[in-house]
């Protein structure tokens, strides 16, 4: 019983999303990166403090430079996209200040959710006519399933990295052995060559 209670407590402590706030200096940009698996829904909500005459744009891209979401001159809003493959995704906020104006810093807050965090369980519960406890159990079930999938994915990545390390170690070992054999052969050839040379010069018998 205590074991299940501990598991449920851990799942309840897992946050629905991540929230971050920072100060964006004039005519600069701030980018946030995160690695995500394939086919993962992502939603974001942001808000920017006001600064007369200044504008802020945002753009969401993957590691290949493909634009997944983009807007100019924003103050607050939302964006959403689905990941197409396992990749590193980047969210950038860019500040623009007119040349004849002295810029000021702006506060930017961003809340991002992905995977099971993006589901609206209130709407789902009403549609399925679920009780509050049933809705919460459904959320915990989806969350635990997502955690299991994440662990399985990390295990697969660990196996791939281990195989790569083992392959690299084998190649380094073979290369080291080959290098030693080459050096040993070169040293033997030098000794024999010098021996013949000294004999030819009658310096040794």
UniProtKB/TrEMBL annotation:
Residues 1-19 form the signal peptide. One of its GO terms (cellular component) is membrane. The keyword Ribosomal protein does not apply. InterPro entries: Emp24-like, GOLD_dom. Keywords: Developmental protein, Membrane, Signal, Transmembrane, Transmembrane helix. Its main location: membrane. Residues 29-139 form the GOLD domain. It comes from the Eukaryota. It is found in: Membrane. It is a single-pass type I membrane protein. The chain crosses the membrane at residues 172-194. The keyword Membrane applies. Belongs to the EMP24/GP25L family. This is GOLD domain-containing protein. It comes from Brassicogethes aeneus (Rape pollen beetle).
